[in-house]
Amino acid sequence: MTIIVCLQYKQVEQYMSFHKLPADVRQRIHDYYEHRFQGKMFDEDSILGELSDPLKEEIVSYNCRGLVANMPLFANTDPHFVTVILTKLRFEVFQPGDLIIREGTLGRKMYFIQHGAVTVTPRGSKEITLNDGAYFGEICLLTQGRRTATVKADTYCRLYSLSVDSFNEVLEEHPLMRRAFESVAVDRLGRISR
Predict the structure, then answer these.
(1) Does CATH place domain 65-193 in 3.50.40.10?
(2) pLDDT score for 129
């Protein structure tokens, strides 16, 4: 663990103490940091931010290769488009029981599951469990509408998110990819509603 990260975690401990957070909340925060950084605390954004764009793209592509291999969304897609999308992803961790998406809220990002399990509860349909390599929330990237399902973490989940703003930024460079995303989303919406 680096000195900077040790100092950052020390600040988290001081914050919890100052606000006299209950022991169970403190434990959840501690568990969050353990699962987020898996004992290796470093600031990935800071590290990648110092690298050249080609090197950063190579590292991100390598780190996310498992996601790309399992994503029908990326099958037969321009490799440069995939690389640019990957550089826009943000790593997030959710604990068991956390609501990742709440039905009725405005959709601002989609998620890719690197590791973990979630339950999707669509309005008027049966629950669906998604695991490693699955994705959800893509329909709102295209429609910018309200969420039609609630998604809850069943286990510790290591996810990558893609915001609407980042998605639209990439589509400015690759306008033809919007149709590919739309057809996948329409197909998926049709399967969910059955």
Answers:
(1) no
(2) 97
